[in-house]
Design a protein that fits this description.
single chain, alpha/beta, Rossmann fold, four-stranded parallel beta sheet, globular
Length: 308
């Protein structure tokens, strides 16, 4: 039986509108930026963002970069200081990502920020991503459009070969210009080198390299967000002092997914943990989630959260 392939549409008005319609419907699409092809979803829609993780396969819940059309859109999501304004004035639109304090009421899905109080933002320069931002009217979370641990894609055919039918639609606008992911800066620290070099940044601010290669490096998330309360995993019933987060047939005070849908569970994970942490119970319990597909990521994040 022939494997299903994604639809690849050449960049143009009709293709952009089709991609925007998919985004507005809660779907995911692959789109080129000036760095690499990204796998985009509405950053305000937790279920859509969960589909990114599911499509990439066996992910860990690291923060995602959110793409916006301009500085005004970025300021609606984050709090800018003078340093951030100086960098954005010089390098936006372009391949620079700024990690900034998340603005209260920003409306971004907690899955995008991995439960952190910061957000990674970029104003891209590529015409396809900018057209999709304008047509969809949404801030777009968009990690690289490749399977987890695979080579980053710089052409539409790379995306198709890596993700196959997991991504329904790919906007094709040829090879990307930079070919490597954006530079990431938090404060005056370079978290990930990229097309905007340290020398270029130092023309604006006295930045220095950091010790991690990502917004929050794999293995560090547990130190950034874990519940204040003890967390017990694989629970099918709650003890008297526990708030039970259910899944599937295991009902609880809250549930990741009553239908046993791992994509829904991923979308609800961080919000559910926050609610449990704010409850009047002394401890938290979480029902078993199957170790398959995006469930691998859910369990990885829960195990990290359980470490104290």
């Amino acid at each position: 039986m022939r494997a299903q392939l994604p639809e690849i549409r050449r960049y143009g008005t009709a293709a952009v509108e089709a991609a925007a319609a998919a985004i507005r419907a809660g779907g995911i699409v692959a789109v080129p930026t000036e760095t690499v092809y990204g796998l985009a979803a509405d950053a305000r829609d937790s279920r859509a963002v969960a589909r990114i993780y599911a499509a990439k396969g066996r992910p860990s819940f690291n923060p995602l970069i959110v793409h916006v059309l301009d500085l005004a859109a970025a300021e609606a999501l984050a709090i800018f200081d003078d340093d951030a304004r100086a960098l954005s004035a010089r390098f936006w639109p372009g391949p620079l990502t700024l990690v900034l304090p998340l603005r209260a009421g920003a409306g971004v899905a907690s899955l995008v920020t991995a439960g952190l109080d910061t957000i990674a933002l970029r104003v891209p320069a590529h015409r396809a991503m900018r057209a999709l931002l304008a047509a969809s009217g949404a801030p777009l979370a968009a990690p690289s459009a490749n399977a987890s641990n695979a080579i980053s894609p710089t052409r539409a055919e790379h995306v198709a070969a890596s993700l196959g039918a997991a991504v329904p639609l790919i906007l094709d606008d040829g090879a990307t210009e930079a070919g490597v992911e954006s530079t990431i800066v938090a404060g005056r620290t370079i978290l990930r080198p990229g097309p905007v070099t340290a020398e270029m940044l130092r023309d604006v601010l006295p930045v220095a390299p950091g010790t991690t290669a990502h917004v929050s490096a794999p293995g560090q998330l547990a130190s950034h967000y874990a519940p204040r309360k003890p967390l017990r995993l694989e629970a099918v019933t709650a003890e008297p002092d526990e708030w039970l987060i259910g899944y599937g047939a295991v009902a609880g005070d809250d549930t990741l997914s009553a239908a046993g849908d791992p994509v829904e569970a991923a979308a609800r994970l961080f919000d559910s943990l926050h609610r449990a942490d704010a409850s009047d119970r002394a401890r938290i319990a979480v029902a078993p989630v199957p170790e398959a597909g995006v469930g691998v990521a859910i369990n990885d994040r829960l195990r990290r959260a359980a470490r104290r």
